[in-house]
Specification:
CATH class of the largest domain: Alpha Beta
CATH topology of the largest domain: Rossmann fold
Organism: Streptomyces fildesensis
Largest sheet: 7 strands, mixed
InterPro entries: Asp_de-COase-like_dom_sf, MoPterin_dinucl-bd_dom, Mopterin_OxRdtase, Mopterin_OxRdtase_4Fe-4S_dom, Mopterin_OxRdtase_prok_CS, Prok_molybdopt-oxidoreductase
Bound molecules: iron/sulfur cluster
CATH architecture of the largest domain: 3-Layer(aba) Sandwich
Structural class: alpha/beta
Strand content: 15-25%
Radius of gyration: 24 Å
Number of domains: 3
Protein name: Molybdopterin oxidoreductase family protein
Strand order of the largest sheet: 5-4-18-17-16-6-7
Distance between the termini: 52 Å
Helix content: 25-40%
Keywords: 4Fe-4S, Iron, Iron-sulfur, Metal-binding
C-alpha cells in the first residue's frame, strides 16, 4: 500500500464503508481498497468509488456567495458573508423573538458537527427551533426501539451476525442498490443454509436474492406483521418462556394480533395466505432469526406502530435479546445513527438525552457552562419546522440538507423556504436549497476534514483528513465559531474536531448513548468502537458494546415491552380521482437528494434522471409504451418523467426515485401526513393518478 494512503470512510450511506485515499501526483486523491475494515472488506459501490470527483473545483463551491442588490448570488469574502448571516439572525431575533430563528441540520454531518450545531442553537441562538433531515430517515424505527427496548441503536448487533442467523425478514429495504456491499451478509446467510424473506411492493434487486418475496400493497406492512404473528400463535411457535421471563405486555398486545386472521390480512395486504404460512414456517424453522426494517415500513404515518408490530413478532417468538437474533433498523444516511444522538434533534441533548429531562438538562448545561433554565424547551419536528418557515420562523440556518428536493410536499416547502426573511446555507455544493439562500457558505467535505461518524451498527468510526481543501473553504466548525463570536458568545466554539469530540464525550457520559470511553486513538486502533462505551474507572478500558440486550433490555425493569398495535389505512388510500399507490425510493447510482451524486459523471451516465416504474398491465390500460412521458398527479402537485415498464412492480402501484429536482421531482407528490409518535412524514405511500403527459 502507498505509505501516503490515508484510511478513511465513504461520505455517503450508513454502512460507512472503509476506504483508503491515496494522493495523486497531479493533485487530488484516488480511492483505494481497505480490505482490513470489517464492515465492507474492501468492497465499495460506485458512489463511494467516485466520491473524490465532488472534491474537484468545478463540482463544488469554493467561495462564499451573498445575494446582491440585483437579486443574484455574488462572490464575497468570509467576513462579509459571516457578518451578513449574523446580521440576518440578529435582525430576525430582535423583530420576532428567539424562536423565530430556526436551525436545520443533516444526518450526514459528523458527530462533532451535529453536536456543535445543537449546542449552537441552544446556547448561542437560544432557540427551540432545531431539527434535522434524519427525522425523515429512521425516526419511526428509533421511536419503536425506545418503546420496546428502552434504547435506540439501529442494529443492536454487528452486521456479521446477519450472516450467521437462521432466517432474516428484510422489510422495505433495497440494500442491493442503497448499500450494495451489505448484500454479502445476506448471500453468506444463504450459503450457510439460512433463509431470506424480503417484503417489498417491488421485486427489487434485493428481492431477487430472496427465498420468499412477499409483495404487499404499500402501507400494509403493519397488517402483514400482525398476520404473521397471528399464524405464529396459531401454529404453536410462541416462546412462552421468553415471553414470561423477558417481556411485558403480551396479554395486552395479543387481542390485536388475534384480530388479524390470515384471510383478513390477505385482503388488506394482497399477500396470499399460503405465502403468509410459508413465511412463518421459514422464520420459525430455526431457533435464531432477525427482522430488519428500512424506510419502507418506517416512512408511513403509522411507521412507529408498524415497526412495533415487527418487534412484537420477534418478541413473541423469542427472537430478541439472544445471540444471532433480534430486530434491527438499517439506517440510511451516513451518520444517521450518530446524527440522532448528539443534539440536533428537536427534543434531544447529546448522549441521546431528552431535552425535557431535568437531570439531562443539568448535566449538559454544566458541560456547556450555562444555566439549565436557559436551555430552550423541545421544538418542532423537521416537517413542522419547514412548514412554519415565513410564518413563525423567519430566519433559518441550514447545514448539510437539501429540503427543496428531499422534503415531502416539496413544492409547498420550497415556497415556505422562499418566503423566509433570511436564509443561510452551509454546503459543499450549490444545492437547489442553497440557490434560494441570502448567504451560501462553502464548507469542507469528508476527505478534507477529520471527524467521527457512527454507522448503522452503532460503531463509532473515524474519517481522517486526506487532502487540503481549497483556500476559500472553511469547516462547519469554523463557521459556527465565526458566527458565535458575532452573536455575542464569548466562550468560543472549538474548531478542532478532536477537541469537540472530547467535549461530546463529557456531555454524553452517563447518557443512553455513552461515548465517554471512546477516543480518537481507540477508534483508530480498533477499527471503530461500539457504543455504549462508558469511561472505565479501572485500568482496563471498557470494550464497547457490539451486542445489546443479551442480559437485559434497557427498560427500567430490564424487560422488553410489547406494544399493542392495530392495522389502520394510510393517510391517503386510492380513490376514483387518484386510483393508484405511489411509492418512492432510491436507485443504485444516486444518493438522497442527489446534490453530490448528480455532479459525478459516471453516476449521472448510469442514472441520468427520474422515471416512473409501472406494471405492463397498467401501461396497457393507459396506452403507455416504454419511455413515454408520464404525468403523475397527487393532491399536492404533478411530476413528469419517462415510463419504465416492468413486471417487478404491483399493477396497483407506481414507483419514482426521489433524487431529482424540476418537473420529475417525486417529492412534489409525497404526503406530509405525520406519524403521531415519531413525526415521520408518509413518504412511502400516497394516492396518485397517471396519464400520458404529451411532449415536453
Ligand atoms: Fe459508500 Fe454506502 Fe456505497 Fe459503501 S455502500 S461505498 S458507504 S455509498
Amino acid at each position: 500500500m502507498n505509505p501516503s494512503t490515508v484510511d478513511t470512510h465513504c461520505p455517503y450511506c450508513a454502512l460507512q464503508c472503509g476506504m483508503g485515499l491515496a494522493a495523486l501526483p497531479a493533485g487530488g486523491v484516488e480511492v483505494v481498497e481497505r480490505p482490513a475494515f470489517p464492515v465492507n472488506r474492501g468492497a465499495l459501490c460506485g458512489k463511494g468509488r467516485t466520491a473524490p470527483e465532488v472534491l474537484a473545483r468545478g463540482a463544488r463551491l469554493t467561495e462564499p456567495l451573498v445575494r446582491g442588490a440585483g437579486g443574484a448570488l455574488e462572490p464575497a469574502g468570509w467576513d462579509e458573508a459571516l457578518d451578513r448571516v449574523a446580521e440576518g439572525l440578529l435582525r430576525t431575533r430582535a423583530a420576532h423573538g428567539r424562536d423565530a430563528v430556526g436551525v436545520f441540520g443533516g444526518g450526514g454531518l459528523t458527530n462533532e458537527k451535529a453536536y456543535a450545531l445543537g449546542k449552537f442553537a441552544r446556547v448561542v441562538l437560544r432557540t427551540s427551533q432545531i431539527d434535522y433531515n434524519g427525522r425523515f430517515c429512521m425516526s419511526s424505527a428509533a421511536a419503536a426501539h425506545q418503546r420496546a427496548f428502552g434504547l435506540d441503536r439501529g442494529l443492536p448487533f454487528p452486521l456479521e451476525d446477519i450472516a450467521r442467523t437462521g432466517c432474516v425478514i428484510l422489510v422495505g429495504s433495497n440494500l442491493a442498490e442503497t448499500m450494495p456491499p451489505a448484500l454479502r451478509y445476506l448471500t453468506e446467510l444463504r450459503e450457510r443454509g439460512g433463509t431470506l424473506i424480503v417484503v417489498d411492493p417491488r421485486r427489487t434487486r434485493t428481492a431477487e436474492h430472496a427465498d420468499l418475496h412477499l409483495q404487499p400493497r404499500p402501507g400494509t406492512d403493519l397488517a402483514l406483521a400482525l398476520g404473521l404473528l397471528h399464524l405464529a400463535v396459531a401454529e404453536g411457535y410462541l416462546d412462552e418462556e421468553f415471553i414470561a421471563e423477558r417481556t411485558t405486555g403480551w396479554a395486552e398486545a395479543r387481542p390485536g394480533v388475534m384480530a388479524h386472521w390470515p384471510e383478513l390480512v390477505e385482503r388488506i395486504t394482497g399477500v396470499p395466505v399460503p405465502q403468509l404460512r410459508e413465511a412463518v414456517r421459514m422464520f420459525c424453522a430455526t431457533p435464531e432469526g432477525m427482522v430488519l426494517t428500512a424506510r419502507g415500513p418506517e416512512q408511513q404515518s403509522k411507521g412507529t406502530d408498524t415497526v412495533s408490530a415487527w418487534i412484537n413478532l420477534c418478541l413473541a417468538t423469542g427472537r430478541a435479546g439472544r445471540p444471532l437474533s433480534g430486530y434491527g433498523c438499517l439506517t440510511g444516511q451516513g451518520n444517521g445513527q450518530g446524527g440522532r444522538e448528539h443534539g440536533q434533534k428537536a427534543d434531544q441533548l447529546p448522549g441521546y438525552r431528552k431535552l425535557d429531562d431535568p437531570a439531562a438538562r443539568a448535566h449538559v448545561a454544566a458541560v456547556w457552562g450555562v444555566d439549565p433554565d436557559d436551555l430552550p424547551a423541545p421544538g418542532r419536528s423537521a416537517y413542522e419546522l419547514l412548514d412554519t418557515l415565513g410564518v413563525e420562523v423567519h430566519a433559518l440556518l441550514l447545514m448539510g440538507s437539501n429540503p427543496v428536493v428531499s422534503a415531502p410536499n416539496a413544492a409547498h416547502i420550497s415556497e415556505r423556504i422562499a418566503s423566509l426573511g433570511f436564509l443561510a446555507v452551509c454546503d459543499v455544493v450549490l444545492s437547489e436549497t442553497a440557490e434560494l439562500a441570502d448567504v451560501v457558505l462553502p464548507v469542507t467535505q469528508w476527505a478534507e476534514e477529520t471527524g467521527t461518524t457512527t454507522n448503522l451498527e452503532g460503531r463509532v468510526i473515524l474519517r481522517r483528513k486526506a487532502i487540503d481543501p481549497p483556500p476559500e473553504v472553511r469547516t462547519d466548525l469554523e463557521v459556527l465559531n465565526g458566527l458565535a463570536a458575532r452573536l455575542g458568545w464569548e466562550k468560543g466554539f472549538p474548531t478542532d474536531p478532536e477537541e469537540v469530540f472530547e467535549e461530546l464525550r463529557r456531555a454524553s457520559a452517563g447518557g443512553p448513548a455513552d461515548y465517554s470511553g471512546i477516543t480518537y486513538r481507540r477508534i483508530a486502533e480498533e477499527d471503530g468502537v461500539f457504543w455504549p462505551c462508558p469511561q472505565s474507572s479501572s485500568d482496563a478500558a471498557h470494550p464497547g458494546t457490539p451486542r445489546l440486550f443479551l442480559e437485559r433490555f434497557a427498560t427500567p425493569d430490564g424487560r422488553a415491552r410489547f406494544v399493542p398495535v392495530l392495522h389502520r389505512p394510510s393517510a391517503e388510500e386510492p380513490s376514483a380521482d387518484y386510483p393508484l399507490h405511489l411509492t418512492t425510493g432510491r436507485v443504485l447510482a444516486q444518493y438522497q437528494s442527489g446534490a453530490q451524486t448528480r455532479r459525478v459523471r459516471e453516476l449521472n451516465a448510469a442514472s441520468p434522471g427520474p422515471f416512473v416504474q409501472l406494471h405492463p398491465q397498467l401501461a396497457e390500460r393507459l396506452g403507455i409504451t416504454e419511455g413515454d412521458r408520464l404525468a403523475v398527479t397527487s393532491r399536492r402537485g404533478r411530476a413528469v418523467a419517462p415510463a419504465l415498464i416492468s413486471s417487478a412492480i404491483r399493477p396497483d402501484t407506481v414507483f419514482m426515485p426521489f433524487h431529482w429536482p424540476g418537473e420529475g421531482r417525486a417529492n412534489t407528490l409525497t404526503n406530509p401526513a405525520l406519524d403521531p409518535t415519531s413525526r415521520m412524514p408518509e413518504f412511502k405511500v400516497c394516492a396518485v393518478r397517471v396519464e400520458a403527459a404529451g411532449p415536453a
